[in-house]
Design brief:
Length: about 170
C-alpha cells in the first residue's frame, strides 16, 4: 500500500504540472517520447537515462523487520525517480502523465506503473519458492534483452495511442 500511495502522489504531481500548461501538442509529445524510448530500448539510439544512481536499501529488512522494510521498499519504488532507472518506461509514463495534464490520469498511470514494477517481486515466491532463486531470477528479469524488447514494444503501443489521439481526438 505504501507504493500505491507514493505512486499516487507522484502521478498527482505530474498530472497537475501538465494541467498548468496544457497545450494541443500533448499527443505529439507522447509520440516523440514513445519513439525515443523504443529506439533506446532496442539500442537503435543511445540516450542516457536521468535519475539517481541508487537502489532501495537491502539492509532495511535487517534494521526494521520485514513488514516495515516491505512498506519502505514499496514507497521508495513507488516514487519512481528515487532509484536507478534500468529502462525508459518510467520516463514515457511520466511524459504521458504531464502531457495529458490530468491529475487523475497521472495517479492512475503511476499506480499502474508501480504495480507492473512490483508484480515480479510479489509473484516470485510462487514461481520460484526457494530463497536462492529470487536474486538470480530478478536479475534475469531486469537485464535480459527480452525485457528491453517488451519495453520497446510497449513504447510503440504508446506511440500508436498517441497517433490515434492526434487524428481521432482524445
Amino acid at each position: 500500500m505504501a507504493g500505491v500511495a507514493s505512486a499516487a502522489i507522484v502521478g498527482l504531481g505530474l498530472g497537475t504540472i501538465g494541467g498548468i500548461r496544457r497545450t494541443n501538442f500533448a499527443n505529439w509529445g507522447i509520440l516523440l517520447a514513445a519513439l525515443l524510448v523504443a529506439g533506446r530500448e532496442w539500442r537503435i539510439i543511445s540516450l542516457p537515462l536521468p535519475g539517481r544512481q541508487r537502489q532501495t536499501e537491502k539492509i532495511w529488512a535487517h534494521e526494521y523487520g520485514f513488514p516495515i522494510a516491505a512498506a519502505m521498499w514499496g514507497f521508495d519504488v513507488g516514487l519512481g525517480f528515487g532509484t536507478y532507472l534500468t529502462n525508459g518506461g518510467l520516463l514515457l509514463v511520466a511524459v504521458a502523465a504531464v502531457a495529458r495534464g490530468s491529475p487523475i490520469f497521472g495517479v492512475e498511470l503511476m499506480i499502474s506503473y508501480w504495480i507492473g514494477r512490483a508484480a515480479p517481486a510479489w509473484l516470485m515466491r510462487f514461481l520460484w519458492p526457494t530463497e536462492r532463486a529470487e536474486p538470480m531470477v530478478m536479475a534475469v528479469l531486469s537485464t535480459h534483452h527480452i525485457y528491453r524488447h517488451v519495453i520497446g514494444f510497449t513504447s510503440l503501443w504508446f506511440a500508436g495511442v498517441a497517433v490515434r489521439s492526434i487524428y481521432v481526438g482524445g
